[in-house]
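User:
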Amino acid sequence: MLEKLVNEEDFINAYEKLDFKSNRNPHITDIPTVEINGQYYNGLLSENELLAILEKHKYFNLE
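Assistant: Predicted structure:
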């Protein structure tokens, strides 16, 4: 079962656990799923896509 994370701290923690440098694909049940404003996002997104989502929802500012 996918873990649903709903707050900013959990989202950032989930993001930090994703291994973008690895070519291996984690099993789907190991990928954090995050709900933000009713939409679900997970680690199958590219790093840039996830960063854009974080920026869109003002979790942190991209510089």
